[in-house]
Design a protein that fits this description.
With 393 residues, this protein is an alpha/beta fold. The chain folds into 2 domains: 7-15 and 268-389, Aspartate Aminotransferase, domain 1, CATH 3.90.1150.10; 21-263, 3-Layer(aba) Sandwich (Aspartate Aminotransferase, domain 2). Helices cover 36% and strands 16% of the residues. The chain contains 13 helices and 15 strands. Strands 2, 3, 4, 5, 6, 7, 8, 9 and 10 form a 9-stranded mixed sheet that branches. A 4-stranded antiparallel sheet has the order 11-12-15-14. A two-stranded parallel sheet has the order 1-13. The radius of gyration is 22 Å and the shape is globular. The two termini are 37 Å apart. The structure holds pyridoxal-5'-phosphate. Pyridoxal-5'-phosphate binds next to helix 3.
């Protein structure tokens, strides 16, 4: 992470590398072997990968044999979103993918489903999935042609809103559908147990929990139901995912999982910090004397990730605020962290019915394991300075 004088409030984009994860990865880099080789170095690498599988499986409470390591959650999503599903000895067909309108682009793009077979499911103003809409879509699904596949994320990366995935899983399974859950933002920020999620396939990312970038996972709930492989070639990952394993990143992921197994209770304090910072943002903004109105906190009425606050103030543009905060040494993101580095209108807030002005001003703060009250105070000082300079048109 950048120099220690900076305040990093962008954990949902990428968490700072945990020391234990860095050390574990470096150790592998110094003794590297190919995990498929039979010699000493190869066996050592295999041991690291298999130990990591067990540790990650323990964190999400699943059988280690059901964990497939990937290069990222994006790869895991593209793997999971397959129209061809193997079940026992046969191949089943999923004809349409129904995915919530607020999914991360790696799911929203539909994986291996064509654009016309990727159907968005509405969300309510609160950010929760519109289950009536999903039900209507499933009622109208042509079951004679094939199964429906449904993808709904556990927690949204922009607003932190948590979906009742278990309830949605029950609905999808009533229609004999396959349920995929992007659990990326939940891990490390709330208890994430595969059985409680109820998904057939779940996806995860290492760098969101302090592991090195370049490692993710696809978790199968049952060893007998799995998507057709995305990457073909060698027999790695029990023939589910070809390609030499990124052993160093996997070792780092394992160390980060161990860290989270020991520190899960620390996340409780996020709630207190987030509620306090939201109250302060509101009072500083109203006291600015610039005629700025009440901030809108997106998803506030719902169960949210305790580390996430996404808000907008009419008259404060996100693009300008990001630069001003960055110059003040505070890293936050706009409502939508964009891969091209530009601030773009958020499809999540749009789906929630936010106005154009609200979307233009949306900022996201996301705390993490090392965030202290002093970091929040530094942000608030920069915010006070920022709103005092806003000139309303
Ligand atoms: N899903 C969610 C909810 C995310 O926030 C992200 C990353 O921002 C991803 C998927 C993609 O993860 P990765 O960077 O590992 O591909």
């Amino acid at each position: 992470m950048a120099g220690s004088t900076r305040t990093y409030l962008d954990y949902n984009a990428g968490a700072p590398l945990l020391d234990c994860a860095r050390e574990a990865a470096i150790e592998v880099y110094s003794n590297s072997g190919n995990a498929s080789s039979v010699h000493f170095e190869g066996r050592a690498a295999r041991k690291t990968v298999e130990a990591a599988r067990v540790t990650f499986a323990k964190l999400v409470d699943v059988n280690a044999a059901n964990v497939i390591f990937t290069s990222s959650a994006t790869e895991a999503a593209n793997h999971a979103l397959s129209p061809r599903i193997r079940a026992g000895g046969q191949t089943l067909t999923a004809t349409k993918l129904y995915c919530s309108a607020i999914e991360h682009p790696c799911v929203l793009q539909g994986g291996r489903f064509s654009k016309e077979n990727t159907i968005p499911v509405s969300v309510l103003e609160s950010g929760l999935l519109d289950q009536d809409h999903l039900k209507t879509l499933l009622d109208n699904h042509d079951h004679s042609a094939g199964m429906p596949m449904v993808a709904v994320m556990l927690a949204n990366n922009e607003t932190g809103v948590i979906q009742p995935v278990q309830e949605i899983a029950d609905l999808v399974h009533q229609y004999n559908g396959i349920f995929v859950v992007d659990a990326v933002q939940g891990l490390g920020k709330m208890p994430v147990l595969i059985k409680e999620i109820g998904a057939d396939f779940s996806i995860f990312s290492g760098h969101k929990i302090g592991a090195p970038q370049g490692c993710g996972a696809l978790v199968l709930s049952s060893g007998s139901l799995y998507p057709e492989p995305l990457l073909r070639g060698g027999g790695q990952e029990n023939f589910h995912r070809a390609g030499t394993e990124n052993v160093a990143a996997i070792a780092g992921f394992s160390a980060a999982c161990n860290w989270h197994l020991e520190n899960l209770t620390k996340i409780v304090r996020f709630n207190i910090l987030r509620d306090w910072i939201e109250d302060e943002i509101a009072s500083i903004t109203l006291a600015s004397g610039n005629g700025l109105g009440q901030p809108v906190f997106f998803g506030k009425s719902e169960n949210r990730l305790a580390n996430t606050s996404c808000f907008s103030v009419d008259g404060v543009k996100a693009e300008m605020a990001l630069v001003a905060l960055d110059l003040a040494g505070v890293s936050v993101s706009s409502g939508s962290a964009c891969s091209s580095g530009k601030v773009r209108r958020s499809h999540v807030l749009e789906a929630m019915g936010a106005s154009e002005t609200e979307m233009e001003g949306a900022l996201r703060l996301s705390f993490g394991w090392h965030t202290e009250k002093a970091d929040a105070e530094k942000f608030l000082t920069a915010w006070r300075e920022l709103v005092s300079r806003v000139i309303r048109n």
